[in-house]
Amino acid sequence: MSEATMEFTTSGGATVRRTGQDATLLFPAEADVRNCAELHALSRQLLDEGVGALILDLTDCTFCDSSGLNVILRTCVLAKAAGIRLSIRLPEHGMVRRTCSIAGVTKLIPVELAGPPAEGDPVVRRLSR
Length: 129
Known about the structure:
Radius of gyration: 14 Å
Helix content: 25-40%
Largest sheet: 6 strands, mixed
Order of helices and strands: EEEEHEEHEHHE
Shape: globular
Number of strands: 8
Strand content: 25-35%
């Protein structure tokens, strides 16, 4: 028996996908001051609901400023406090992946890549799922 998937997209462009006890929060094309409050509220709501695991998916995100990084790091703190597995899915290449690496996100949160790792990128590791 397969688990049902429920999905909705907010007016701000974020998408929440629930499959069984797990959830994925898909970031919009840009994660910045204009939508970080909504992204944080969504991640907090999912954690408060007691999901088994949460993936922050930035695969389609092409810009993430410090506000977006703040959402990711605050979600990390809340997930650890609640004992919920958190991972982040990053694009194969580009500014968002590089920004997360430079900011240390990839050292704090297990990473799934949307494609193969870039040559010489030692901080990114692939999760088995």
